[in-house]
């Protein structure tokens, strides 16, 4: 499938990276997620407003973010798309 990545996929990737790698700078997180910095920051502000991440010097996933990630992973498994 070609074309822009969906918002949900990007949110999933950002949350998964934060869970796996721990707190990261915005720049490193953007690199890991294969997003340009401006686009990553846009998503991070959205995630912060939804209380899924906390942004200080570094970005870290919140408890609510972990719970949301688990729900997304459950749906992906149910659809046969997750590991």
TrEMBL record:
Gene3D superfamilies: Winged helix-like DNA-binding domain superfamily/Winged helix DNA-binding domain. This is ArnR1-like winged helix-turn-helix domain-containing protein. It comes from the Archaea. It comes from Pyrobaculum arsenaticum. Residues 7-76 form the ArnR1-like winged helix-turn-helix domain.
